[in-house]
Specification:
3 strands; TIM Barrel; elongated
Length: 129
């Protein structure tokens, strides 16, 4: 852990009780907000306001145990840059966004879907007539 800290690497836990984030060597706290998904699947239950409240609650708890903790938002409906901005404007101690699927899977899905639509829209032209 010490080597990771000196190399400017962050070791963020992303689930559990806020008080567990005071463990030695852990610098960041990521309240687990659920799965990133912009397609309104049934498991997407939290709203952005729910996430802001969770980040405020867990952030305060983590900071009471570890005053130098880094509080980041991650997951759930926070999947796009405007979602992260929404949370940052509505939280007291959130210092940033920790991206995973929102940085790789979701943009890739969107690009693949759009490319498939383009191919699907191609119509054959009968050149024999």
């Amino acid at each position: 852990m010490g080597e990771m800290r000196s190399a400017a690497m962050v070791t963020p836990p992303s689930s559990g009780c806020p008080k567990t984030f005071a463990a030695p060597g852990l610098q960041a706290q990521l309240p687990g907000s659920g799965f990133e998904d912009k397609r309104n699947r049934p498991f997407r239950k939290r709203t952005l306001d729910d996430c802001a409240a969770l980040v405020n609650e867990w952030g305060a708890a983590a900071l009471s145990e570890k005053p130098d903790a880094i509080i980041l938002v991650h997951g759930g409906p926070v999947a796009m840059p405007e979602d992260a901005e929404y949370i940052l404007k509505r939280t007291k101690n959130c210092q940033g966004f920790y991206g995973a699927s929102s940085m790789e899977r979701l943009p890739t899905e969107a690009a693949i879907i759009e490319q498939c639509r383009k191919f699907k829209s191609i119509r054959r032209v009968d050149r024999c007539s």
